[in-house]
Design goal:
The chain is α/β, with parallel strands linked by helices. It contains eight helices and five strands.
Length: about 170
C-alpha cells in the first residue's frame, strides 16, 4: 500500500494517494506489516548510498527532512546531494551528535537544524518533498510523525512527501 500511495502521488493522482495513505496510517499494525513485507528502507542504504541517488535525482526534491541525525553519516550524504541539486536538508534532532557549526559553514543555505523533538520540529519545516524517519524508533512516535506529516500536508494543501523509514520493527 505504501508503494501504491507513493506511486499515485508521483504521477499526480493526489486524491487517490491520500486515500491510500489514510488506509495505511489508520491501521495500528502498519509498522509490523511494513517490516514483514520488506518495505522498510533507508535513504542512504547504510553503506549503499548510491542506491538513494537515482530515487532522489528522479524526484528532484527541493526540501528533504531527516528526522534523527546521530553522528551525521547520512546527513553528510544528503548534504552532498543537496549541494549538487540545489536542495535544502532540514535536520530535526533534539540532541545531534554531529557538529552543526561545521556543517553550516560547509553547506551554508543547504543545511538547517532544528534542535527539538520531531513532533515539535516537523511543523517548523515549511515544505518537504522527502522525509527520512530515523529518529525515535518507538512505534508510537513514528506513527504520530506520519500522522503529523499527513496533517501538515492537508493543512498546507501540498502533496504527501516520499517517506522512507528505518528501524521500524521496535517494539
Amino acid at each position: 500500500m505504501v508503494l501504491h500511495a507513493t506511486l499515485l502521488a508521483h504521477v499526480g493522482r493526489t486524491a487517490d494517494a491520500e486515500a491510500v495513505w489514510r488506509q495505511v496510517i489508520g491501521r495500528e499494525v502498519w509498522m509490523r506489516t511494513f517490516s514483514r513485507q520488506a518495505l522498510v528502507t533507508n535513504l542512504a542504504g547504510r553503506g549503499e548510498p548510491a542506491l538513494a541517488a537515482p530515487i532522489l535525482s528522479e524526484l528532484k526534491p527541493g526540501a528533504i527532512v531527516e528526522i534523527g541525525s546521530d553522528w551525521g553519516a547520512n546527513t553528510r550524504l544528503l548534504l552532498e546531494f543537496c549541494t549538487t541539486h540545489g536542495s535544502v536538508l532540514h535536520v530535526v534532532d533534539p540532541l545531534p551528535k554531529l557538529d552543526p557549526e561545521s556543517l553550516k559553514a560547509e553547506y551554508r543555505d543547504h543545511f538547517r537544524l532544528y534542535r527539538t523533538l520531531s513532533l515539535n520540529g516537523l511543523s517548523r519545516v515549511e515544505h518537504s518533498d522527502v522525509v527520512l524517519v530515523d529518529g525515535d524508533h518507538n512505534w508510537y512516535t513514528v506513527y504520530h510523525e506520519l500522522q503529523l506529516i499527513e496533517k501538515l500536508c492537508r493543512d498546507r494543501r501540498s502533496g504527501f512527501p516520499l517517506v522512507l523509514l528505518h528501524d521500524v520493527g521496535w517494539p
